[in-house]
Amino acid sequence: MALGDSTTVGVGDPMNGSSTTDLSGAGARPGEGWRGWASLLADSLASSHRVTFSNFATSGATVPIVATEQLPEAVAKADGQIDIASLIVGVNDTLRSTFDAGRIRDHLHQIADELTARGALLLTVRFHDHGKVFGLPKWLRRPLWHRIEQVNLVFDDLHTRYGGIRLDMADYPEVYRRDFWSIDRLHPGERGHRKLARAFADELAVRGLPIDVRPDLDCAYRPPSRWADTVWLVKEGVPWVGRRANDLLPWAARMAVTPRTSPLALPPSSNAEVQRLEA
User: Fold this and answer.
1) Which domain holds residue 139?
2) From the centroid of its chain, how far is CA 56?
3) Residue 210 near residue 30 (C-beta atoms within 8 A)
4) pLDDT tens for residues 7-27?
5) How many domains are there within the chain?
6) Cβ(36)–Cβ(11) under 8 Å?
7) Which residues contact 273 (CB under 8 A, 6 or more apart)?
8) Are 105 and 273 in contact (CB under 8 A)?
9) Of 23, 49, 70, 177, which sits 20 to 30 A from 106 (CA to CA)?
10) Does the predicted model carry a pTM greater than 0.85?
11) d(CA 5, CA 18)
């Protein structure tokens, strides 16, 4: 089972081979034009096992949406045992003024607890520096990275508590290469999706799960030209920044002039989460 946002939907890896997409992933739903890493991994697993694959990811999903909408649907469909469940979400949360690291922690623990209680091996990631990929100015890159690291700390905690497979995206140098990404640089391109599927397959094989045919790294995707990048920036990128400006930029400006006086720490759980863990 796959839960998460547009990356797990497959945005950036269109079945028709086009390299053009938009930041919203508009119209992208599993099975409706996008392929993506989760589908590639499921196909690879099917080379050696009988696989039932369900993708509950939705474009634009935040952690609360995964917890309150995707998780109940996934649990209901599972009706018992879940062997493997991916949980990749959190970037959309960092781009909103409503960002709340404590609430993100509570929801992610809830999701992981329910999935692993049904036997699921969790597949998660530790996010890279998105600002470096976007080429953001330092005044905006620093506060965004601060938020991403808060989400990463929660995933670190999940990995310690529930185990599973966690990929640290910063460990892969190609993450900072242009050909890893689709035209928006937010979603992996075909090459990025294939690399993500292959990395998870390799880790599953290390754990003793036989996979006869691992995801192929060869692809038809070619990175956009500078002209295509420029056209996309004018038609899609600038309007997207404009839509996000009232929500994100005032916070980023405040963070840019506020020095960090203490190291990052794991966000505190709510009282409900503490009581649940103690029980």
Assistant:
1) 2-278
2) 13
3) no
4) 999 998 887 654 444 434 433
5) 1
6) yes
7) 105, 106, 109, 110
8) yes
9) 23
10) no
11) 21
